[in-house]
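Good morning N.,

You mentioned wanting to compare the apo and holo forms, so I went ahead and generated the holo version with D-glutamic acid. This is what I fed in:
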Amino acid sequence: MTADARASRSIGVFDSGIGGLTVVRALMERLPFENIIYFGDTARVPYGVKSVATIEQFTAQITDFLLQQDVKMLIVACNTMAAVAAHIVAARAGGIPVLDVIEAGARAAVAASPGGRIGVIGTPTTVNSNAYARRIHELDAGARVYSQACPLFVPLVEEGWLDHPVTRMTAQEYLRPVLAEEVDSLVLGCTHYPLLKPLLRDVAGPGVKLIDSALTTAELAAERLNDCGLAQGGSAPANYRYYVTDVPLRFQTIGERFLGRSLGRVERVDW
Ligand code: DGL
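and this is what came out, ligand included:
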């Protein structure tokens, strides 16, 4: 295969459902010429409250599906899968580069926290796995990490209550113990949380830097594609394909909110 043919293959991005579109949006903005195949397991979402064994099994299935589409890079957009099943993706990927939101978010948090005090919010499975804290400590052994599970945020975001009094009160309640630790930064450790950024910025106050793992993942992807000689140059419009496991209607409607543009064609995978 020529270098151009290798670079023109798609980036495979996957998530438990709709939320990973926040990562796709950031990729589209940062890497506008890259083709993307997105997989959302909408029939089995949410993952954030499921057991590790179940998430590992689903992750293996999705990884194999994307490898069959001949992707050039895999991006685990789901924090929960990255937290407990990154090893499954790495073991199956062969020589293909694999990135995940936890690696990107941990690096950005360390860089943005001169005082070494870092807050992390995510689903219960992500927080219980301690994956963010482990990675942050590998990068900065002296860092202090304060984590908080926020299980109500995912349904609130999917309901579209991005600036609703109920969401604001919920955020104040969840963030209180983390903010009491005077953190320098707060990692938005779930695909859905970037949509709450304006509200969380208000609640956390100006002294706390919000780490949007979607943006930092897109940045890391750009870096890795260049390092591996896989960046797609030129000016041809990029091609986007979306696969889901449930009927696509809800994904299409809510997905446009996450993506900030229309989705185009969505196909259902029948497993
Ligand atoms: N995508 C998941 C995450 O980033 C949130 C939704 C779920 O629980 O599946 O952790």
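The longest strand covers residues 117-122.

Happy to go through it together on a call whenever suits you.

Best,
F.
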